[in-house]
Amino acid sequence: MSFGMTKTLSGSVFKDSAVAECLGAIDEANAFIGLAKVFSRDNEVRGILHEVQKRIFRIGEEFAGGRKVESSEIDWIKSKIKEMEEKIPKISSFVILEKDPATALLSVARAVVRRAERRAVTLYRNGLASENSVDWLNKLSYLLYLLTLKEGETFEEVQF
């Protein structure tokens, strides 16, 4: 049966397998990250998104049966988070992030990354992924949040 199957680095899997679901979520996240990059008006945000796009392939490689994600990838994303945290005022309330195409797309990319992380946790729990790969996705969703704040500069606070 060739339909309903997809090839990975470690062989063929069913398209509805946990591996294929995770790889699909990574692919969707990368597509939305690219779309957000195209709409971004901020050169620094665009540069970081471009680098994320290159690095997310490395994360997906592990899920496809390739090399494990190394701690240097975690170090890189932590450094980007630290850089952004130093540039962006801390938000202490709920804010509506989506105010233009770029911030809306960054928000969607973050949500899709969070889905990819949930799929990666399933792989991790079944011995098919490393802690580093799951951690990287977790940190990526936070980095995308910070990039959304940088891109949008000001946001509407939600009062209860």
List keywords for this structure.
mainly alpha, Hypothetical Protein Ta1238, Chain: A, 4 strands
Description:
- By secondary structure, this protein is mostly helical.
- The chain has a single domain (5-157), classed as Cobalamin adenosyltransferase-like (Hypothetical Protein Ta1238, Chain: A, Up-down Bundle).
- It has helices spanning 18-39, 43-63, 71-87, 101-125, 131-152, and strands at residues 5-8, 11-14, 95-96, 156-157.
- The chain has a two-stranded antiparallel ribbon with strand order 1-2.
- The protein is elongated, with a radius of gyration of 16 Å.
Brief summary:
With 160 residues, the chain is mainly alpha-helical. The chain has helices at residues 18-39, 43-63, 71-87, 101-125, 131-152, and strands spanning 5-8, 11-14, 95-96, 156-157.
